[in-house]
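Hi all, a correction to my earlier message: I attached the wrong file for TauD/TfdA family dioxygenase. Here's the right sequence:
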Amino acid sequence: MAGITVRDLDDTLSFGAQVSGLGWSNIEDESIRQQLRDLFVDRGMIVFRGMEPSARMQVALSKVFGPLKDHPTKSTPRDKETGDEAEGVIDMHYVPRNENPEEGEGLVEYQGEVLARFSPWHFDHCYNDELNYAGVLRSPIAAPVGGRTGFMDGIELYRQFPRGLRDRLEGRNVIYTLDTRLSKQKYGVNFTPLTEHASTAALLKEVAIFPRAMHPAIWERQTGEKVLHFGPWMAVALEHEENAAGDALLDEVAHEINRLGEGTSAYWHDWSPTDMVIWDNHRMLHAVEGCNAKYERQTLRTTIKGDYGLGYFEDGKKIGEVFREVA
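and the right structure:
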């Protein structure tokens, strides 16, 4: 049975790895599965090269790292190809509207370009009391130019962040909301929202029911490393400091994250259909640079269970209670 090949993702980065040689012939081998799990804990993200570009393989790869979890919102589109086998596989598919490409597409202007599928730095499920452990992403349809996905490691962010600014975040919780409208982003805004997405009306029905969620801006792993874990997108305030001073601190932190993300602190992935990427959602931030509105783009994501136990809803509810209200 063939083994796998592991290499650093980039010589300049302290996080990430790339793996080749994984397929149906060895993905069920427990020694290889444990090697991948250990590598993931150490490096925070893995880029798998040369994978079979199928939903079945994406699900099999995801289950190496844990059971799948459904997405916590009902308005998010699911992938129809996987059916019941992969509960919670979400389909992020942008198809240009030739007759009016700006209608209902959630476009922004960034650095003089009009972009679709632009996503600021964030971590998944920040609006939930529980964070998923990881996500696995693939891109069956990639834009010919742009559309890269960026990743930053919170451990490395903590090390690189200006100490005075970082120290002001210690022991603080950030409040997040389900409202994903880019026109409502408060911190680190370096783009101009142009149009809302067509699904906004359905989203806002859930926003009205979801309580706000709290997550620490900095937390410490069992292995001892501190993680700076603040996502500017969907953040609305500092807990116990919902005022101008708290907003000014978060805005300064968000702009510093943007600055580091544009430099050598981030990894920006150019997609191939045979790539699959997994990242530790408790540790990493990610973003999408967006692409020209004339290009089609599709990504499919699986969500892996496993909470870090530090988040909570401000009214003390559990996600099951929220789901019952949404339904």
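Sorry for the mix-up. The longest helix spans residues 244-261.
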